[in-house]
Amino acid sequence: MSRIISLSNFKLIKARGHGYVTITDKYTGNCVHHVVCNYVAEHNFTQKVLENAQKNGAYFFTEDLNQAMNHFPNMRKCQKCFKS
Ligand SMILES: [Zn+2]
Q1: Is 35 domain-assigned?
Q2: Which residues contact 47 (CB under 8 A, 6 or more apart)?
Q3: What pLDDT is attached to residue 63?
Q4: In total, how many domains does the chain have?
Q5: What's the 53 CA to ligand 1 centre distance in angstroms?
Q6: Who surrounds ion ligand 1 at CB < 5 A?
């Protein structure tokens, strides 16, 4: 599980196209996405991590879905990218 703190790192993870991104949020809750999900978006990352300095939440990357689900409490899977 690694914290994503730079836009270049975020772009690299999106470009590679595999693994999971966990987005934490004090108000709306914690959610895990496939990296390719539209909700894992550059403008959202920029706002939360760079402009708001991770005050309300942060972005994390892992290749391991179980780790993504278990690392933080009350983790849910994105309704959009995990629907089958
Ligand atoms: Zn998603």
Answers
A1: yes
A2: none
A3: 97
A4: 1
A5: 22
A6: 33, 37, 39, 78, 80-81
